[in-house]
């Protein structure tokens, strides 16, 4: 029994505990987790059905036949002009309840529900998350390699951060460098934010050119065999102001305090509090406007979330980001992000890119 079959059996057991006949999955990361093949079918109906015995069946448009063949499981294909929802309805049968993941769009779920009015559906995300939340050794090794590549990308992009270069040009350079280090692409569109743009946590790179005296946030990530990385470093061009130094030190200390708080049994809200307390005590609490972190794996954002509302306890094998930030409107922002693996001893930090203040000051 290979790892994917083992995962499907565990999913079937979870479905039984919920009283479901099985699960219907369509999110690309769930395809990958339960079959080893990531399928992104766009607007076309594509589902992995796992019944109560753990037996799988894949249904997709005929243009994805090669993907389904690589999965090595029973499958069916539909073609243009056929009623794809009716094919899936027949597979689900009559009566009972099925779990369905949040990746199935309403424009597929609603027609399916009209066809199987005696079948009910529950959201299966919690059951799937429970399986994906703790990474196994192979998953952790892939995440480590993805983060090693991220460190190398940060090292190489430094040489391109200089006055006169635009945010868009840096974003394009990041794409090239990721390919050089072995990633098939980037795990999300990069954030390159200079000066006042850095006060927007999810700033989109634009034509704005870098200048001496700018803080520059670079937030980027790539892949290793489907598993993602996510890293943020904030650089400064020239001699930093006292205000920037104060903000940077507060964010760096918040990053380190949150990492130090990671250990089994600690609640994620307590880790968030460890970061937030540092920033509040420095006088910048109102400018830390997002959660401290998010889980990573086959998705760039997945549970567990490091936020004030999450009272779930840390368990070994969980992998997540620690990324506090301060954003001063009209001036600049600072964010420092590392990925960590929770172990029995505490946090194993996956990123090694330098982050002390003297490491991120670039001469002009």
UniProtKB/TrEMBL annotation:
<feature type="domain" description="Peptidase M24">
    <location>
        <begin position="141"/>
        <end position="344"/>
    </location>
</feature>
<dbReference type="GO" id="GO:0004177">
    <property type="term" value="F:aminopeptidase activity"/>
</dbReference>
<dbReference type="GO" id="GO:0008235">
    <property type="term" value="F:metalloexopeptidase activity"/>
</dbReference>
<dbReference type="InterPro" id="IPR001131">
    <property type="entry name" value="Peptidase_M24B_aminopep-P_CS"/>
</dbReference>
<dbReference type="GO" id="GO:0046872">
    <property type="term" value="F:metal ion binding"/>
</dbReference>
<feature type="domain" description="Creatinase N-terminal">
    <location>
        <begin position="7"/>
        <end position="132"/>
    </location>
</feature>
<dbReference type="InterPro" id="IPR000994">
    <property type="entry name" value="Pept_M24"/>
</dbReference>
<dbReference type="InterPro" id="IPR036005">
    <property type="entry name" value="Creatinase/aminopeptidase-like"/>
</dbReference>
<dbReference type="Pfam" id="PF00557">
    <property type="entry name" value="Peptidase_M24"/>
</dbReference>
<dbReference type="Pfam" id="PF01321">
    <property type="entry name" value="Creatinase_N"/>
</dbReference>
<dbReference type="InterPro" id="IPR001714">
    <property type="entry name" value="Pept_M24_MAP"/>
</dbReference>
<keyword id="KW-0378">Hydrolase</keyword>
<dbReference type="InterPro" id="IPR050659">
    <property type="entry name" value="Peptidase_M24B"/>
</dbReference>
<keyword id="KW-0479">Metal-binding</keyword>
<protein>
    <submittedName>
        <fullName>Xaa-Pro dipeptidase</fullName>
    </submittedName>
</protein>
<dbReference type="InterPro" id="IPR000587">
    <property type="entry name" value="Creatinase_N"/>
</dbReference>
<dbReference type="InterPro" id="IPR029149">
    <property type="entry name" value="Creatin/AminoP/Spt16_N"/>
</dbReference>
């Amino acid at each position: 029994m290979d790892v994917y079959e083992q995962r499907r059996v565990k999913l079937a057991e979870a479905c039984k505990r919920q009283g479901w006949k099985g699960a219907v999955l369509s999110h690309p990361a769930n395809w990958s987790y339960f079959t080893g093949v990531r399928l992104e079918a766009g607007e076309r109906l594509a589902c992995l059905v796992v019944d109560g015995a753990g037996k799988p069946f894949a249904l997709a448009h005929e243009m994805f036949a090669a993907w389904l063949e690589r999965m090595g499981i029973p499958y069916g294909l539909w073609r243009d002009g056929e009623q794809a929802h009716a094919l899936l309805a027949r597979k689900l049968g009559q009566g009972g309840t099925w779990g369905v993941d949040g990746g199935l769009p309403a424009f597929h779920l609603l027609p399916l529900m009209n066809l199987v009015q005696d079948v009910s559906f529950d959201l299966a995300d919690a059951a799937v998350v429970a399986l994906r939340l703790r990474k196994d050794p192979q998953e952790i090794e892939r995440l480590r390699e993805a983060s090693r590549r991220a460190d190398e990308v940060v090292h190489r992009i430094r040489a391109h951060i200089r006055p006169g270069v635009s945010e868009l040009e840096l974003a394009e350079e990041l794409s090239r460098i990721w390919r050089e280090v072995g990633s098939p692409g980037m795990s999300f569109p990069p954030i390159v934010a200079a000066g006042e743009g850095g006060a927007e946590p999810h700033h989109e790179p634009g034509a704005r050119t870098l200048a001496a005296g700018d803080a520059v946030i670079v937030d980027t990530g790539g892949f290793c065999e489907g598993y993602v990385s996510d890293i943020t470093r904030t650089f400064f061009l020239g001699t930093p102001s006292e205000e920037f130094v104060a903000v940077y030190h507060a964010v760096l200390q918040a990053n380190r305090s949150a990492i130090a708080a990671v250990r089994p049994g600690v609640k994620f809200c307590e880790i968030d509090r460890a970061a937030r307390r540092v920033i509040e005590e420095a006088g910048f609490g109102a400018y830390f406007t997002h959660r401290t972190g998010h889980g990573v794996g086959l998705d760039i954002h997945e549970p567990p979330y490091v936020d004030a509302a999450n009272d779930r306890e840390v368990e070994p094998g969980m992998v997540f980001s620690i990324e506090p930030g301060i954003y001063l409107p009209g001036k600049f922002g600072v964010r420092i992000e590392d990925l960590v693996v929770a172990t029995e001893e505490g946090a194993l930090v996956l990123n090694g890119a330098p982050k002390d203040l003297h490491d991120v000051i670039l001469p002009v």
